[in-house]
Amino acid sequence: MAKSTASAPPERPVVAELGRPETPEEEAARKRARTIAYRDSKTLKNLLIALGLTVALLLGFMLLVPRPDGAPLYQAVDYQQVAAGAQASMPIPLAAPALPEGWSSNVAEIRSGTSDKVVSWYIGLISPSKQYVGVTQALDANPSWLAEQVAKGFASDVVTLDGVQWTVYDNRATGTDVGNAKYALTTESGPTTYVVFGTAGVDDITTVATALGDNVRAQATVDPATLPSASASPSS
């Protein structure tokens, strides 16, 4: 009876990175690493899918929550009430313009965190056409502070609104990023500097500036003795 001869094991292919056939241990390690990488990629993919679904559900929830017709998504703020509450902390009459129906506000606050240490009263307004107009009323402002508020633009005109003369900064055609100060009106009265600015149209910004007339004139009655001394720096 003929003897059976055992066949030789197939030769392992040469791995280019090694320049030789890989050992059984190296092959096992490679396959294990590939499995781990695949599992990790699936985990990341599932995480991204879950995150996307969460965002989609949140947006859907926001759209489905019943709201009165025309109600904004942002939280409205009664800036006139906030101004009344903040008045005790400021030595100048705070502006709280009476605006036509359809105007609203999403923020009203005292600000003092600028590099120039200028304290100001700020109101963020939304026009009836859902455009932004900001009002900043600063105490003892300086030229560098004002330049920052108007995006370092140049005065282009002067207009008179309700007996108050305003300087115009029209930055719409500058071709540079001016943030929200696309169009701004500024004026000074007593120790107060006003800046009315925004991305809204000129008519909307003019409406707000006109409504500030009485408050601008009231600054002339401020007693200088009630103002902080020039050497005292406001707290941030």
Structural write-up:
This protein is an alpha+beta fold. 31% of the residues lie in helices and 22% in strands. It folds into 2 domains: 20-64; 79-224, Phosphorylase Kinase, domain 1. The strands form 2 sheets. The protein has a 7-stranded antiparallel beta sheet. It has a two-stranded antiparallel ribbon with strand order 1-2. The radius of gyration is 33 Å and the shape is elongated.
Supply the key terms:
236 residues, alpha+beta, Phosphorylase Kinase, domain 1, 2 domains, seven-stranded antiparallel beta sheet, two-stranded antiparallel sheet, 5 helices, 9 strands, disordered C terminus
CATH topology of the largest domain: Phosphorylase Kinase, domain 1
Low-confidence stretches: 230-236
Strand order, main sheet: write it out.
3-4-5-9-8-7-6
| Approximate shape | elongated
Biggest β-sheet strands, sense, barrel: 7 strands, antiparallel
The number of domains = 2
Rg estimate, integer Å = 33 Å
- Overall average residue pLDDT: 83
Which architecture of the largest domain per CATH? 2-Layer Sandwich
Number of helices: 5
Count of extended strands: 9
Structural class: alpha+beta
**Share in helix:** 25-40%
CATH class of the largest domain: Alpha Beta
The percentage of residues in β strands lies in 15-25%
User: H/E series, N to C?
Assistant: EEHHEEEHEEEEHH
Task: Give the CATH H-level superfamily of the largest domain.
Answer: MucB/RseB, C-terminal domain
Q: Distance between the terminal alpha carbons, to the nearest Å? A: 103 Å
